[in-house]
Each structure stands twice: as C-alpha cells, then as structure tokens.
Amino acid sequence: MPQYRSVFKDETKLDINYVPYRLPHRDKELRLLMEFFSFILQFPEKMTQRVMITGDVGTGKTVLSQRFGADITREANKRGISLRYVHVNCREYRGNLFLILHHVVSIFHPNFPRRGYSAEELLRILLQILDEENTYVILTLDEFESLVEREGSEAVYKLTRLQEIRANKPQRLSLICILRNLKIIERLDPSTKSTLQSNIISLEKYSKQQLMDILNDRVSLAFNPLTVPEDTVSLIAELAFSESGNARLGIELLWRAGKYADTEDLGIVTPECVRKAASSIYAVMRKSDLAFLNVHEKLFLLGVARFFKGSQKAYASLAEIERAYAVVCEEFDIQPHSHTQLWKYLQRLSTMGIVQKKVSATGSRGRSTLIYLPRISAYELEKELSMLLEKGEA
Amino acid sequence: MNIEDVFSSKLRVKILKILAQVGELNVSEIARRLGVNYKTTNKHLKILEDEGIVQHKVFGRIRLYRFNERSPKARAVQNFMEAWEHANKQ
Questions:
Q1: How far is A246 from chain B (nearest CA, A)?
Q2: What are the structural domains of chain A?
Q3: Whole-prediction pTM value?
Q4: Residues of chain B positioned with their CB less than 8 A from the CB of A118
Q5: How far is it, in rounded angstroms, from Cα A172 to Cα A174?
Q6: What is the pLDDT of residues A139-192, one digit of tens each?
Q7: Secondary structure (DSSP) of A337-386
Q8: What is the ipTM of this complex?
Q9: CB contact under 8 A, A113 and B59
Q10: Does A112 sit within 8 Å of B64, measured CB to CB?
C-alpha cells in the first residue's frame, strides 16, 4: 500500500487565529505600538492609552495587535506587572457594549451572571475586579465600527473617559480600537472623537513582493520542504494583491491549495491547486460568461486551459498560448486568427476576469506579457469549453 | 455547628457540589440550579459561610459564592467530593 505523505508539516500555522512570532513588513508599526504603551512597563498605574489601528481587510491589523499584546504581556509579567491583553471582536458581540464588557469580566469570573445590571455597572465592576487583583488590561476592540454603529458616542465616551470618574485611583484600562477606516469616527461627538484620535496607526496595503515575503514565511512554517514552488507562491501573491493586498486571503488560498494537493496526492502544491482553491473561494465564474464568447475566444481560452493543464507553470507567455491555440484550431479544423486579433481576445478575456495578464519583469530581453488563470481550475475550464465547442453552441 | 448538622441538609450538599463543579456562582444561579427560591438558597449559603466553608464577593448587586480558599474545612470538603466523584467514575 503506497504511503500517504501530506505536503503539510503543520497546517495550524495557516489558521486564521495563528499569530506568528515574526510579522514581515509590520516591524515599524509594532515598534510604534510598543512606544505608545511603553509606560505600562514603567509606571502602569499612572496613565492609560488609546490607539487606533486602521487599514483595509487583510492588512494585518488584528495580527499586529495580537502580536503586540503577546509581546507586551510577556514583558510586563517578567517585570512582575500583572497585565492582561484582551482581544474582542465587537461584531461577534453584535456591537453591544454590555456583551463586550461581560466577555472581559468573564475572563476573571467565568460564571459572572448575564442579567441584572447595566453596561455602566459592568464597567465599574470590571474596574473593581482590576483593582482587587491589581491588574492592568489592554482591551482591543476589533471591528470597532460595529460598536460605534450600535452604541454611538455614549458607549465610546464611557470607555475612553473611564478614569475621570475614578480620580486618584490607579489607571487600569487602555484601549486599542481596530477599524477599516476613520469615516465612522465622524459619527462620534467632538469630545469622544478627540479622546480617540491622538494615536493612529494606518496600515498600508501590502505590495505583491511583501505578500510573497509573508507567504514564504508561512510556507516555511506550515509546509514540508520543497513542496511549494516559487511560481505557486507568486500566483497566490498576485491573487491576494488583486484583492486589495489581502494577506489573509493569500494565507487562506495557500492552505486550500495545500489541501487540493493532498487530496490528489501530488506531493507538491501546483499552480493548478491554487486555481482550484481560488475558484472555491470566489464565486465561481458563471458558465453563461463562457457561452457569450465567440468561437475564437473560446478556442483561445481552450488553448490557455490546455497549456496550464499540461504544465506546472503559473504563467505563460502570449507566444506559448498562441502555439496552444494553433493546435486547438487544427483540432477543430478552423483557420487560426492573427496575433493582433488574439491580443484583442486576450484584452476582452482579461476585462471579464477570466484570465489575467501582467507585464514580466524587465530583463535583458525586454518586457513581455505573461498570462495566468486566476480563479478557475484549468481542468474545469477545459471541460466546460470542450463541451460548449462540441455542442456547437458557438 | 456539628458536622452532622451541616451535612444533614440535601440542599447544602448540593450547593457544595455545584460550587465544586463550577468554582464560583451568584445566588440566583445557584437557586435556579437547585430548583428552589432565592431566600432558601440564601439561608443555606449563610450557614455554609458561617461555618467558613464558602465565602462571597460583592460586585454591585451581585454576590458571587465560592469555596473559602483559606479554610481547612473547605479543602476537606473539596477533597472528599473529588474523591467521591473519582470513585464513581471507576
């Protein structure tokens, strides 16, 4: 019986909740967060801090905050300071301040009752617990938008101005608010806004190269050596970059592609595995899109599909596709169209999102166009097109 | 109170069993789990607290009860219950 060997070494390293020790291209922001909260390591009772982290989906807001939380907690505990980092996704609690605070309180008292008091009382109870246990908390409110949307200024004001009702008592609760952009903050009243807006860390969208670095890091953590070729990583980075530089999507694609490789017992994660993974994540291309193509567009696309089906490469040059197209035309006994015409087909297919093109890096031989299949398996595409062409629906 | 008086009540034993299982609970929830009213629960909790077996903390209007960590009686009860449960599982 042949022995099954997975491409994965440790797939938990691709889990959405995994927080890596190293955050490529977020070192500066991590240092900045440490700077903002450095007081906690020296005189934690003297002040609290409020920081906002903004950025698009998949720019590393959550992981940055969690890495920081783990690092600063470890450092504080080493110095004998009792510090807890609590990360709450506000959306999970429907943006309800009471439920969010109840979650925090239940970390200290797991069976704390859910009824019989208000959010404001719960906030006081939380501070009482922190006083009694001489503990400090950095509370991260992820997807902060949902809290603002539901509770408005009042709740945010309560959280941010907490210390003012506790004069001469140690300061206990610092906040990190994570949100996609600052627009929602405009809804808050001026005084609440002013307490929040002093420290803002904006995370820029990752470039393709940065995404490759992130993916390569995860590949080395999660996969067995030599199971993920560079072309595969590059294709995933390309797809993640086209989705607003979304690293989370890239990692998800990497995991799924690994699963497809294991299912077929390939021992290697090929670009075709990535395309299958992508078509399972994105809405699968509608078959009607293909039916609307003219005969030569279909033949051209069949050439693309066959090229990638028979190759381990993620990218093809236009010349390679032209050759595959010529073979397909011969099979269907149709005279192939010229290069200029094919270029137009490529433009149209690219606009429709069925294929993608990019310009290759400048080398000694100049620039050329590279074609790749982003979101559909070459195998599936070939099957669909062959069926359409044979039916004569073209 | 004599040991036989403390443990002569089924409800008091049940309260201790609940606290041994969950660690800490408020009065209403203990009452709900016992299936008796708040007042009765309170009365039994007071007896157990007077004996130093349980203690409570107040958070606003909430009282959370748990075993008194410093009491040798509480430790003895916990050990007894643990041993009992363990023997039952075997």
A1: 42
A2: 27-203 (3.40.50.300), 206-281 (1.10.8.60), 287-391 (1.10.10.10)
A3: 0.77
A4: none
A5: 7
A6: 999 999 989 988 888 888 888 877 677 778 889 999 999 999 888 888 888 888
A7: PPHHHHHHHHHHHHHTTSSEEEEPPPBTTB--EEEE--SS-HHHHHHHHH
A8: 0.81
A9: no
A10: yes
